[in-house]
Write a structure and sequence with these properties.
Helix 1 packs antiparallel against helix 4, helix 2 runs antiparallel to helix 3 and helix 3 packs across helix 4. This protein is an all-alpha fold. The protein contains four helices and no strands. It is globular. This is Type I restriction enzyme R subunit. It comes from Isoptericola haloaureus.
Length: about 90
């Protein structure tokens, strides 16, 4: 399984834990949007540069906080950890 697919699986697990019966489809939307946004901003070796890490954090924060209204710092940190590991 490619690393990005492992990342999507990890993110799916994280956001699935947050969902309620009223929001089952949102998990897939969130994970796909994070994947899409990150593929657009990341670059080879981004984890080891301040600029790369900052850009990825901003993109993730904007996606979670603004687009999906998820303002949980713990969820952001867990998602960021998966992103750093798999993307």
């Amino acid at each position: 399984m490619p690393r990005e697919e492992q990342g999507k699986a990890a993110l799916t697990e994280l956001f699935s834990a947050l969902k309620t019966d009223g929001t089952p489809v949102i998990v897939e939307n969130i994970v796909n949007r994070i994947d899409e946004v990150l593929r657009g901003v990341r670059f080879e070796g981004w984890q080891s540069t301040i600029r790369g890490d900052k850009e990825v954090q901003q993109a993730l924060r904007k996606t979670l906080y603004v687009q999906f209204k998820i303002r949980d710092a713990d969820v952001f940190e867990k998602a960021l950890g998966y992103v750093r590991e798999y993307y």
